[in-house]
## 1
Amino acid sequence: MEGVTDAPMRALLTEKGSFLFCVTEFLRVTDQTPPVSVFHRHIPELGNKSLTSSGTPVLVQLLGGNAQRLAESAFRSVSLGAKGIDLNFGCPAPTVNRHDGGATLLKFPKRLFEIVSEVRKAVPKEIPVSAKLRLGWSDPEDIFENVEAVARAGASWVTIHARTRMQGYAKPVFWNHIRRVRELNFLPVVANGDIWNFQDFLKCYETTGCEHYMIGRGAVGNPHLATSISRFLQLKTHSPQQGKAPDSPSDWRPFIERFVTLSQLHTDKPEYIVRRIKQWVKLAMMERPLPWFEELKRTQTLEECLQTFAV
Ligand SMILES: Cc1cc2nc3c(=O)[nH]c(=O)nc-3n(C[C@H](O)[C@H](O)[C@H](O)COP(=O)(O)O)c2cc1C
């Protein structure tokens, strides 16, 4: 997630080994293939065989509408060590969409086919090439034709965020469409959207019947969530050990301290780390109230910010 799951956050969230893999924030590809330095800055894990510090594979996500440049960028990513390529056809940001990137491509199944085909051809067959789709631009029924296009082009799997672009992040999330796509057996389907806690996951599991799930905001808001889900998926039991979502400042403290340590490996700007911590807690508040955020919000220096968690 752009601006959220950067390298320190990926390192933190994968430390328990609950994720099969993670995906970078999108790297935008326009009419130029980004230089090597940009890949290394965007994906520091390339310097570690494309693994997070605890050994979870990192897939590089590319975003754009130029099939040739995307194919070159995919080739460059893999030459630098990327473990896989994910293509973003879901981003709803107007500036991105105006520049022929993200969800705007959902209007053109032929272009999805062309992009996935070119990227597939550009990288060795053992490297997965996946596509991240929303259900459509405005019509959720477009998902069927779009998935058929990316499957025919050779995508390894498709991750479906079960909303249209026009919905943005508004409810409802149409998990039922994911089940219908899965039942067509075109290719493996990863379910995504609004899994905020373990109960949501169970509902999504029962509705979609998928084997794999992509957890975005919920995984950041509750760093224990992926562990509960991965235990369930391996054991297929309804009584997983549920990691309680951190609530009080002291529940959050170990995560925050670890995040600061990991962030300091990448930045010498404490004010940036403070911003990220506030953003993180705010995101968690989309699922549950954290009234002490008001106090956190007013802090300015990293020391003041960490004081909030010292209680
Ligand atoms: C701030 C933000 C940034 C995002 N950036 C990306 C991105 O770079 N690539 C991507 O595929 N999806 C991105 N997404 C979408 C998420 O991956 C996911 O599809 C969406 O949030 C729904 O899943 P969730 O409810 O589990 O978060 C972003 C979402 C948010 C809220």
## 2
Amino acid sequence: MKKITMAVLGFGQRGIVFSNVAKDYSNEVELVAVCEQNTNKHQWIKENYQLSSESIYGDFNHFMNQGKLADILVISTMDQDHYIHAMKALEVGYDILLEKPIALSKKEIFEIKNKANQLNRKIAVAHVLRYTHFYKEIKRLIDEGVLGSIATLHQTENVGYLHYAHSFVRGNWHNSNTSSPMILAKSCHDIDIIRYLVGKRVEAISSFGNLHYFKKENMPSGAASHCIDCKVDCPFNAIKFYEENPSWMAFFSLEKDAKKVLSDKTLNYGRCVYDMDNNVVDHQVLNMQFEDGSSASFTMTAFSYTTHRRIEIKGTKAELVGDLEDNLITVMPYGKAPFKIDIKNLTTDFSYHSGGDKNLLIDFVRAVRDNTPFLTDINYSVESHYLAFDAETSRLHKGLVIDTSKSWSDYER
Ligand SMILES: NC(=O)c1ccc[n+]([C@@H]2O[C@H](COP(=O)([O-])OP(=O)(O)OC[C@H]3O[C@@H](n4cnc5c(N)ncnc54)[C@H](O)[C@@H]3O)[C@@H](O)[C@H]2O)c1
């Protein structure tokens, strides 16, 4: 069996996850090169991933000028760089595992997809939900006809108040001008999984949402602009959060002392959640109508105690409810006794996004090795992204109903 070699561009949270997964499957895939612009990380990468200094690059152009260094390239840089990085990597000859979002406009996404097809290269988009044990089981139930035909589906993405504050008020995705709108950055996963489960094309879409709470007018009186100086009893206190959750602080600092790290006032992670330059929505709803007349709705909310996704599917033969984080599915067939499927009885490995990251990387590795199809081919994944742009257009126009076939007329469906 040929071992697939892998390079990683952008060795942050996601690059590290895929490199760790590669270690778990070392008989099938091997990390052979890294390009990471933060050279402070290089020694750590070298020690932890058994790479020579010559295999670790600090500059994208220098890295690409080496030509193709591996069979596949994981692109896990920030959203706004995906277009340039993916287009160049295709030219150099890589098959790509590309982090979502694919890129930041329909045009860029269309160009990446077309170039991949012209050059006969594979691109897997990191829509990891398709690969989780939980959604795989739901897909199996649908495909086997247990639910009958789907009439309507609802999914809620409970982002969690602390995760939201970390990533979407203070973190990388807090401002759509420097990253992307929430419906693309976070919820393209949900649009993709809804579309995948229903298995029909979306004909029309409409959306509402706004930034309801994390803004200046809700700043408690007496609050300071940095948590380190603040005396207000607040659920979003950054010092308390990062002291209790050191793994979240590891995303932006190698230092362990939260007070010391957050004394640095140039860092957004220590700032008051009501006094940031954030603009992304903290709640959004989406309605979709499919080509067969079935419908789906989706809610994303910052306002939840924990981070979890819930799904309800109403079919003509049975109703299904499930919670991804509980890994529990209940099926209620009409006229028969309900039954539960506890995913924990089917597998014990829920590492890396409920098993999604692992299954994604290994499926792609095998697809490249054996030239076989894989679940998150860019040719399907573009659809969730186009829908996300339509949803954002609708939201910005007070829920205007968008006919998706018209809005995509410049792009193939
Ligand atoms: N699929 C998912 O579920 C999921 C989850 C989280 C994040 N993401 C996506 O993954 C991507 C990366 O997110 P992350 O959380 O790992 O971010 P991160 O900030 O932790 O990592 C990005 C890394 O890329 C490096 N980098 C940036 N530009 C570079 C360049 N030109 N050359 C070399 N290195 C460069 C940065 O220094 C950093 O180490 C984002 O697009 C994000 O939206 C996807």
